[in-house]
Amino acid sequence: MSNFFNTKIEFLKGVGPMRAELLQKELSIFTYGDLIQHYPFRYLDRTQFYKVSELDESMPYVQVRGRIRGKEVIGEGRKQRLAATLVDENGDQLELVWFKGVKWMEKTLKNHTDYIVFGKPTEFNGRFSMAHPELEELAEEKQTTSFLQPVYNTTEKLKAHRIDSKVIAKMMEHLLKVALPQVQESLSPELIDTYKLMDKRSAYANIHFPETVEKYNAAKFRLKFEELFYIQLRLFRQKVVRKADLKGQVFNQVPTLNEFYKNHMTFDLTGAQKRVVKEIYADLTAGKQMNRLLQGDVGSGKTIVAFITMLIAADNGAQSVLMAPTEILADQHYVGLKAFADRLGINLGKLTGSTKASERKVLHEQLRSGEMKMIVGTHALLEDVVQFQNLGLCIVDEQHRFGVEQRSKLWRKNPRIIPHVLVMTATPIPRTLAMTLYGDLDVSVIDELPAGRKEIVTVHRFDSHRLRVFQFVRDQIKLGRQVYIVYPLIEESEQMENYKDLMDGYESIKRAFPEYQVSMVHGKLKPQDKDYEMQRFVKKETQIMVATTVIEVGVNVPNASVMIIESAERFGLSQLHQLRGRVGRGAEQSYCILMTGYKLSKDSKTRLETMVRTNNGFEIADIDLKLRGPGDLMGTQQSGVLDLLIADLSKDAPILQEARAAAQRVLHQDPQLEKPENANIRRHIQSLSANTINWSRIS
């Protein structure tokens, strides 16, 4: 798009330097391009008129047509108010009241004149009134072009400086007058024709000031489609470039893997695990760099797939790392894989923040010489001193917990040829989010639990059922099982005094179960103290583990079969699902009990009902996305990709599918976007600054 849209906002009529500074600080609006893409977040429907007899207090904002029959100023001083009577065509009366700007309103309001009034109806003693309604003389109605009135996001600071939604709408009117002639089409004629898209100029006009409901819907579809199309186009181009340019080591020898399968594996892989291993092996033998996302619910067996991949690397003379976000999770991976590595005579190391200096020295030397083929660790692996002879495979667990720069530091540990990359997550990612966040990765999904695993029984209980729940806990411990009790907070705070806190809970549990040993783990404990308490629980020295969400990832205690989550309404849906995944790891039936008070919001009820109804992580993730929106999920704010201006991944999956298919088709037919029919797309991409993450943006 032309340089016109890079014009500073202060040069727009009605803005000026002072307002421009506020718009920059409060809404990040710096240019004409930023303002035109500051879309309304809702609209007031001016298309429907009500008669006074049809009004109801539950209605939000309504329009009534009628004639002013009388007005008077009542009271004195600060208690002064203006009251006017509006009579509709049926002769029914609506009282209009103003408590502010009384003198100005009295002068402005014309008796015996027809008006449209717009406001919130309230009822008192069988009569309806409206306080501070918006007014429009009926004669003026025909001149208005937009029946849906835009409402723009603003802030308290802007309102204090008299920049409310109406003022922003006025700025937008001034902008559109000068900007619409400058708008250039950014999609190809073929796409516009295929998807019956409104042209861009009309889309901007009708997203801000819709002429009709139909035109508003067409404008919204057009702008959402374009935004998602450019995100997908960028991801596909990255993928094409990577596959064309980035060479990968070829791993086609598998002697140790065959020995592992035949002599050391004590269980069968599920069908899903076998499928994923085949997909990974195809990548490793293709001569291109693997860049694959492995999704699998808690307990689905991702770790063994990771180990098989590491074995393939070792069979071909390459080293591999498995990086986890916490020491607890790194320890769990290490303990789980060490038994297999020892049987196969493979040197497997562990490097975390608490690894002693003397041990580090040995590890560093063995990695540099190539003697150590596999290492498991945390961020400590990223330190410059950690060097490899030939790093061929990087596996990152719960990868959204690491920043982009951290991950790329790991990739750069092999200066000769970029390592293969496998990123794993137990956080089920909704399909729409995966396509947008990880569209440049190949995706594998383990959607099947290992044989013999029983589905976790989940129930919701109120605080009044606590004695019954405690009796159930005793019954389970008598059967030899162990129990988690999770709290949302460490200490009570004034704002959250209704919620159970850990310290209070710990004392209560010790009083309720004097015959049993209780461990306590939370994020403020020193790593060694946390580890000590965890180990006591693992060794069955304690029967009950009282904890905060630090146990969400990385605790594998097959004997723990009961998970009680206190104040469960305080947790997000994905977090509840992750916590539930801490039980159900053995052959015994496991249970998750969600404890709450009786006062629950609508969203809380939805979360709890979902947990009770299903164990399917992907279904849970979809509902979570609808409830929370994409920004909160998985720390995606860091990605930049989800800086969406108008599309909403929780609602726009069908548009995303269409935009994705369109982007794929365009690049398949014209990888370099050189054909004349793609000139608009090429020009739009070139007009964006090189470091802009979201290609759909103008500025």
TrEMBL record:
Coiled-coil intervals, chain numbering: none
EC number: 5.6.2.4
Highest taxon, organism lineage: Bacteria
Organism name: Pontibacter mucosus
Catalytic activity: ATP + H2O = ADP + phosphate + H(+); Couples ATP hydrolysis with the unwinding of duplex DNA by translocating in the 3'-5' direction
Residue ranges constituting the Helicase ATP-binding domain according to the UniProt record: 283-446
Official protein name in the record: ATP-dependent DNA helicase RecG
Keywords (A to Z) from UniProt: ATP-binding, DNA damage, DNA recombination, DNA repair, DNA-binding, Helicase, Hydrolase, Isomerase, Nucleotide-binding
